[in-house]
Design brief:
The chain has about 210 residues and is mainly alpha-helical. About 65% of the residues lie in helices and about 0% in strands.
Length: about 210
């Protein structure tokens, strides 16, 4: 039996699209990218703080990332997507974002938080008030494989889908964060997702893992 979200997605323009056809494959060096990484670092600061009690270096790394992000933002405002800005962006991503993404606890929390909003989406009786693109990103991200997304794309999923659905979930079901405890990613893939193998062999996209 299909749920309200699945029915809405199946009748939308996103019905036949794969998740990586909906979200951006790589940074565009725009101000939107800075919003994406800022959201991730703030999420990491909030989610990791309780679990890293006494781990001064982990929290310092996140806060240094937020500080450096301010400088990167100032440069982007002055120069736009200049060669110097692009180079500093890559250095920032390597130094801060990739580092935080490499922590086991970060990977575990990203996955569990994503599962929580998927389960919420599956349970809502109506998608009224929800953006269908947001719903499609979460739904297809679940069935086509969270692990098939590289690091950058996971950040985009959080920015464009997780955060909006989390706000919706918190308004409707304050205790819904517990829904993800027994949820597991499926072994199957949606029809047409066999094309994913070729997509994920592209080394230019792997650099954002």
């Amino acid at each position: 039996m299909t749920c309200a979200a699945e029915r809405a997605i199946q009748s939308s323009a996103y019905a036949t699209k794969l998740v990586w056809e909906i979200i951006s494959a790589a940074p565009t060096y725009s101000s939107a990218d800075l919003t994406i990484v800022a959201g991730f670092l703030k999420w990491a600061n909030e989610r990791l703080a309780p679990t890293h009690t006494g781990d001064f270096y982990s929290m310092l790394a996140i806060n240094l990332g937020l500080a450096d992000l301010g400088q990167l933002n100032a440069l982007q405002k002055r120069e736009g997507a200049s060669p110097r800005y692009q180079e500093q962006w890559k250095e920032f991503y390597e130094k801060h974002i990739r580092k935080v993404l490499s922590w086991d606890k970060t990977r575990d929390l990203l996955k569990s938080d994503f599962l929580a909003v998927y389960q919420h989406l599956k349970a809502v009786p109506s998608v009224e008030g929800l953006d269908i693109r947001t719903c499609a990103i979460v739904w297809k991200g679940f069935y086509q494989g969270w692990e098939n997304l590289d690091g950058w794309q996971k950040l985009v999923v959080f920015d464009q889908a997780y955060f909006p659905l989390k706000r919706h979930m918190d308004r409707m079901y304050p205790a819904a964060h517990s829904l993800a405890r027994d949820v597991h990613f499926p072994g199957r893939r949606e029809e047409g997702s066999s094309r994913s193998a070729a997509v994920w062999q592209d080394e230019t996209r792997r650099k954002w893992a």
